[in-house]
Structure formats: structure tokens, C-alpha cells
Specification:
72 residues; mainly alpha; 3 helices; 68% helix; rod-shaped
Length: 72
Amino acid sequence: MSRRTYRLTALALGAFGFSAALTATAGIPNCDHCVHDYYLCRENTPDANPSCVEQFFDCQVAGRCEPTLPPD
């Protein structure tokens, strides 16, 4: 093999290792902001129950969190 092949192989392995490290350190999603947004919605929206609960659920799904009912 030539030097160029070794360099390309090393570059490919480095890129794969970097992407694997980023994936491994992604961590647990934090959805505390969904609860905060839910309470803001309830305070500022008349007849807030159906729409605020839906927004809370959508926030959890978008944040890849376990969907739960909002705390009351």
C-alpha cells in the first residue's frame, strides 16, 4: 500500500472515532424547560388545559424525553 492509502485510512478512522465520541457523550435529555413552558402557558392562556397539555407533550417528544402528564 502507498502512503496515500495509509493517510486516507487514518483520516477515515479518525473521523469515525470523533463521531463515535460525540454520540457517546450525548447524555440524557433534559426536559425541565417543558415544565416551565407548561406553567407559563397555563398562566397566560384562558381554557389552557387541552392546548397546554398538547404543547407539553410535543415539547417532550421533540426533546426525546419520556412523555408524561404535566405536574399540577
